[in-house]
Amino acid sequence: MAEPDAKKKLRTSVDVYHRIMWDPELRGTHTWIIGYEDRFVGIMETSVEEFANSEIPWHRVQYFKRDNEIVWDRVARIDKIFG
Predict the structure, then answer these.
(1) What is the pLDDT confidence band of residue 72, given thresholds at 50, 70 and 90?
(2) CB 56 within 8 A of CB 40
(3) Of residues 27, 5, 7, 6, the one with CA closest to residue 75
(4) Beta strands 32-38 and 42-47: pairing type?
(5) Is the pTM of this model over 0.70?
(6) Is the dihedral of CA 52, 56, 59, 62 positive or negative?
(7) Where does residue 38 fall: left (phi above 0), alpha (psi -120 to 50 degrees), or beta otherwise?
(8) Which tens digit of pLDDT belongs to each residue from 37-50?
(9) Cα separation, 83 vs 67, whole angstroms
(10) Residues of 10-22 as b/e, b for ≥16 C-beta within 10 angstroms?
């Protein structure tokens, strides 16, 4: 039996990306931004399309924004994509 304070498992940034790319309700008319950690500069933002074509590792993704609202955040453990 799970403890009441046990953390729920957070889906990975790759899972979120694939959901955005394949779910027509999410992909449609929304503007998607990925926030990632640059080793030298700190948190940077880029579009989902630009990120997919970059060589930035997925483990650096910190959050996803949809229309300026954070819908997935690794540190704050927010997941409005999968619930």
Answers:
(1) very high
(2) no
(3) 7
(4) antiparallel
(5) yes
(6) negative
(7) beta
(8) 999 999 999 999 89
(9) 18
(10) beebeebbebbee
